[in-house]
Specification:
By secondary structure, the chain is mainly alpha-helical. It is built from 13 helices and no strands. Helix 4 packs antiparallel against helix 5. The chain is globular, with a radius of gyration of 21 Å. It starts with a helix and ends with a helix. The relative contact order is 0.07.
């Protein structure tokens, strides 16, 4: 065991050195694109996920040897499927649906023998993963009104959104939807909307270079300072601190 550990430490040190060298910048690009890819998958952002997967593909294409490049493509795409299953079980919980999706994707990929098939397979990977994560946010709620409520909030984070608007869209009274949300989600409607907007803000801080003030305005916070207070209460740090921290990972 100690020999294995020492070998791991040695190899780990070498890999860190490689990543710190300019000529290995593509490894860092690969890692960052991979993180952004999974962020997009678990936020149901199909177009952005496809773009990140295309970035990963382009980085791998920098390998000059044809045979080696094809092998790396196959290995890395398998790695992504394993990473998806790991992220899924951490974000939600283990179930047969996630495992079945991963096995199905692997079985499809095992037949690919040309680079073009891997590039075309971007759609297969993204759609397969999105189909598995779709609606997980509210899948466990038996009440169809709550499922609809969560969908409406997710769809309108950049629009004016309050109890009156949501109750009209759902066709029920203010008191009815407020009671259901409190019972099923354990919070008030304004607090739930704020929480989802803070989650969306975290994604924008990590995936874009938009100024904090601009993000606050887009997500309908009354001011940048109020946005900072809400964000810190949910994420434990200010928006700027969050951006710096995630950029270093």
């Amino acid at each position: 065991m100690s020999m294995n550990y020492e070998r791991f430490r040695s190899l780990y040190g070498r890999e860190i050195e490689k990543m710190e060298q300019a000529e290995n910048e593509e490894l860092v690009q690969l890692y960052m694109a991979q993180n952004r890819f999974f962020d997009c998958i678990f936020r149901s952002r199909k177009k952005e996920a496809k773009n990140e997967l295309a970035t990963i593909y382009r980085v791998i294409l920098l390998e000059p040897e044809d045979e080696k490049r094809l092998l790396v493509l196959k290995q890395y795409y398998f790695f992504l499927i394993g990473g998806f299953l790991d992220r899924y079980t951490q974000t939600f919980s283990y179930n047969k649906k996630a495992l079945a999706a991963s096995v199905a994707l692997i079985n499809v990929m095992e037949e690919w023998e040309r680079e073009e098939e891997f590039y075309e397979g971007i759609d297969v990977l993204v759609d397969g993963m999105l189909d598995t994560t779709w609606n997980e946010d509210f899948q466990s709620y038996n009440n169809p009104i709550i499922s609809r409520f969560i969908t409406l909030v997710n769809q309108q984070l950049y629009k004016e959104l309050n109890t009156e608007i949501l109750s009209k869209q759902l066709g029920i009274s203010h008191s009815h939807i407020s009671r259901l949300v409190n019972e099923e989600l354990g919070t008030s409607i304004p607090n739930y909307v704020t929480y989802k907007r803070a989650e969306e803000a975290a994604y924008l801080l990590k995936a874009t270079t938009q100024p904090v003030k601009s993000i606050a305005e887009r997500l309908r916070f009354s001011s940048a300072s109020y946005f900072g207070v809400c964000f810190k209460s949910i994420h434990g740090c200010t928006p700027r601190q969050y951006r710096i921290f995630t950029a270093q990972r």
